[in-house]
User: Fold 3'-5' exonuclease DinG from Parageobacillus thermoglucosidasius.
Amino acid sequence: MKDRFVIMDLETTGNVPKKGDRIIQLGMVVVENGQIIERFSSFFNPERDIPPFVQQLTNINEQMVADAPVFAEEAAKVVDMLQQSYFVAHNVSFDLQFLQEELHMAGFPPFSGPTIDTVELARIVFPDAESYKLSDLAKLLCIAHDQPHHADSDAEVTAKLFIALLDRLRQLPLVTLQHLKRLSAYLKSDLYSLLDNMIMEKMTSLADEKSYIFYHGVALKKPAPVQKKDKGDHKWATFAEFFAGPRVLPLAHYERRDGQWEMMKLVYEALETSQHALVEAGTGIGKSLAYLIPSAFFAHERQKRVVISTHTLQLQQQLLERDIPFVKTIVPFPLRVAVLKGKRNYLSLDKFVAFLREHHHNYDVVLLKCQLLVWLTKTETGDMDELNVSSGARLFLPLLFMDEEDNGSKHNFFLRAKQRAEEADIVITNHAFLLHDVTASTPLLPDYEHIVIDEAHHLEDVASHYFGQQVDYVSIRLLLTRIGKINENGSLAKLMKLFERHHLSAEERFLRCERLVEELQFECDELFRMMRRYALARKPPESGRCRYRIEPKTESGRQWSAMKELLWRVRDHVAQLVDETKRLRAVFIQNEMETSRSNKSCSYFSDVFALNQIVDALFDLMESDDPMIVRWIEAEEKGAANATAIYSQPIQLDEFFAERLFMRKKSVVLTSATLTMNGSFSYIISRLGLSDFYPVCQTIPSPFSFKDQAILMVPSDFPSISSVSLEEYASAVADGVTQIAERIKGKMLVLFTSYELLRLTAAAMNMDERSGEHVLIAQGIQSGSAAKLTRVFQQFEQAILFGTSNFWEGVDLPGDELSVVVIVRLPFAPPDDPVISAKSEHIRAKGGNPFYELSLPEAVLRFKQGVGRLIRTKKDKGAVFVLDRRLTSASYGKYFLNSLPPLHVYEQSLDQLLQKLENWL
Assistant:
């Protein structure tokens, strides 16, 4: 029998069939021999109400199902179509549980055939896809998807997706398919026999596999040869000639923006005249092209490499996938661009081969192995940032990164990336690697004297994290678990087995190591519990998360002394473990086991030395007392007893930037949409140590007309933050947001400065079911990253998105995707923020004013980012509500308002403002 697949999609009244949720629409598509041969779809009367948010998502209302059959009337037909078939769905467990419940209620036996989940299959086949939502995968494969969340349309699209996924699987090399078949026993989908058939086909067809190379039984994409620099004498156009031309870029729907050309000229001149420059480029300027084009011309004309540094992976991807290919079509010379990151961004092939050989039954690990096997047939870079893996699998990625000692085999992704960078005109990197390069004794980036730093408002923060330290309980516990006991499957047991295979006797030493590891597990548990209790006893009453600043020389009391004593004991035990490990290593090397292949699967030595590094850092955090370093303990009040971390950061980095970056490089161009406060660059200049370099400073305003596109509204009848409790303020916010939602009928982003206030507001809205027809999506309450929550938000026509820190920037919701931004409080750092309090003390000690020199500028820059979420294109129109009356009543409110583009500001009662908003929209 040829394989028969029934692809099904359902729309339902909710998510839990056991609680009475029912099917309202079903779509089925039958696939045989890679072709669609049959279709079936029907609405069903669920015999209960359809919730408003489901009606909004699916566009299926009560009237559409009123005269439809109940499921039992069509159950026989559904059962008949499923005979002798695979059951296939996008998130199969959801559809299957509903189907089984409906079959049970209709008196039919449950479906017992094989199942395939196209989400899981897509994760394997497209390990680097940005999203596994059906509509995003359809877009990726150019499958038309006209009616998302309609069962018939979704089933059709899923069927086409499934055919494409099987087709991609068939194209994989034989060894990859063989590995996948072995691993498939632990997947959710029944893929074993499908893969078996594909392997048989491949073996009989003798498929050509010349585009792959093979390393220890793993197929890799054959790397393209590194492009050599073109030494030919070209009479190409110069930047001056390009700039003197018609000033039009060959982009579809290109609208000339004078600011973009002004910025191009400024960047080129800064590079050409070896000057540092600060460029604040408003939203819509097109700043990526405004620095890439002049950088490309300069690199070619002067034969000088330009390094571009970004903060976010998202911007890096945009440069590589969208902007660089476009720049290559504009410049009349071959342009070589390379990406170079830190070693730990790249996969170690030796570690992966060892990982692949290990027997894991853990689902996340098995799926990760499958994804990596397929990804290695596609990637040229080996950059792990390309992967989209589950949060469970993310915990295992550190086991596979290259480390500093990892010089690897001839298939070394980092060395290959370095080679490409050596030949490149433009090298793209990230802020952390740039800092690593300027501090390393041996430079990691190829020679360069000219840099463009995009997202430059993050540079100081990244440097603070880079020079700071962090030790958390989870990483110590993970290492100790990885080392394990001699009767477990950890690295200690593996090393012992290796010794036994070589007939080396060291049992006593292994037993001592095991005892030390057990004692360390107990002591570290206790130490982090004590730390948590110590910090929570000193936290302000209203904050949920505790961030307690410690000053080792002034801390006192019995608890602190007990923690110090325990810390010394932990350190002593680690020293003993390192000593025993060094002796084992000496025997290991002496017996020439170093070269044995089995060494690749033994990570015991690196585990112990990593543990030693972490404990050294912990000791430094709790013992040393440099006044220019701030240290703090973080703990969650409702978290696990030992879910605690301790951090440190430098409080002043201006001298570092001056000496290591600006003095050593000829030209550094810093750009961002938010660099000025009140029209001045003085804050960023002082923080980055640029005062003595007299940089060129230029603000290039947004081409958008904020006066026509946006209004800012401050409700005068809102309670003052200081006059009410946090719960009362949350209730007022919930009430205000509800009133705005009822009037606008569109989408709203609500920005909070603290998770505690977000949580209380979300609770107040749900308690009264105030959000009405709007779907409420709240960070931390619904699980998922900022990107995932944003994608969920985009699915609905009427929705409210609650977000904290990472929603203030980087969220791009143009047009109808956003009508209103609500800023709940002016984004001042909380009073218990240890970094701000330490920096403030330092400013005060020098006779400065911490509020005007630090707190206010930080808050203004954040405020500008929040307001910037609203207007993303020339056609956008909307309103910003600021619920914090300090914007207009406090003397410093003018700094916030003066830092925004010109726009109308209204302060009236909420009711009057909403009336005005309705008329304006």
About this structure: The CA atoms of residues 516 and 573 lie 6 Å apart. The chain has a mean pLDDT of 90.
